[in-house]
Design a protein that fits this description.
221 residues, alpha+beta, 30s Ribosomal Protein S19, Chain A, three-stranded mixed β-sheet, two-stranded antiparallel sheet
Length: 221
């Protein structure tokens, strides 16, 4: 009875077949057969796989830059423009800057009244004219106004220079002699004595006879 039951169970549909009698399924395309497995009957051998590409070890080459035809001659064009600018700067003379004093040109200063000119002067010069000039200073100013191309001598070194003095020649006493001073526009507001030095610059020459031991035996000239 036990043997009959075993035979009936084997004949039932849906029963699993033993592992050694299982039907082999077709392998997926490109899949490698398992180790030790035999190829199925009638199956064609798979094509050999293509060899893998070798990895690139060095840095990738930089793409070549296309140079524009105008950029090739750019250096020579710049040099030519530089030469032309240099020539123009050498030919053209520098324009002299117009003199102004406290924002006023020379023509405007000469047209201003005396009271307005005093307000433009520095504090010391302004105080001198506000307090009034003494007799010697007034005499010098009168002689300077009346002089037409003639130099005027004076001992008054403290007189501030006014715009009407510009262009005159004054001989200012420096303690030894009268040194000539040509009054210019840049001197407005300064004293006359500032342009007549009372000291000389010391200039040292060579050593004299007897200054050193070797010079004692030099013949006198």
């Amino acid at each position: 009875m036990a043997d009959e039951k075993k035979g009936v169970a084997a004949q039932k549909p849906g029963a699993k077949a033993p592992a050694d009698k299982a039907v082999a399924k077709p392998a997926a395309p490109g899949a490698k057969p398992a180790a030790g497995a035999k190829p199925a009957a009638g199956a064609k051998p798979a094509a050999a796989a293509a060899p893998a590409a070798a990895p690139v070890t060095g840095p990738a080459p930089a793409p070549e830059k296309k140079i524009k035809p105008s950029a090739r001659h750019q250096g020579s064009a710049k040099a030519a423009r530089r030469k032309t600018r240099k020539k123009k700067s050498q030919i053209q003379a520098r324009r002299k800057k117009e003199f102004t004093y406290r924002g006023h040109t020379m023509d405007e200063l000469l047209k201003l009244p005396f009271a307005d000119i005093i307000e433009l002067l520095p504090a010391r010069a302004r105080r001198t004219y506000i307090r009034g000039l003494n007799t010697e200073q007034e005499a010098f100013v009168r002689r300077l106004r009346a002089a037409e191309g003639r130099p005027v001598r004076t001992h008054r070194r403290e007189i501030p220079i006014l715009p009407e003095f510009v262009g005159k020649m004054v001989h200012v006493y420096n303690g030894k002699e009268f040194s000539p001073v040509a009054i210019k526009a840049e001197m407005i507001g300064h004293a006359l004595g500032e342009f007549s030095m009372t000291r000389k610059a010391v200039r040292h020459s060579g050593l004299g006879v007897g200054a050193t031991r070797s010079s004692k035996f030099m013949p006198l000239k």
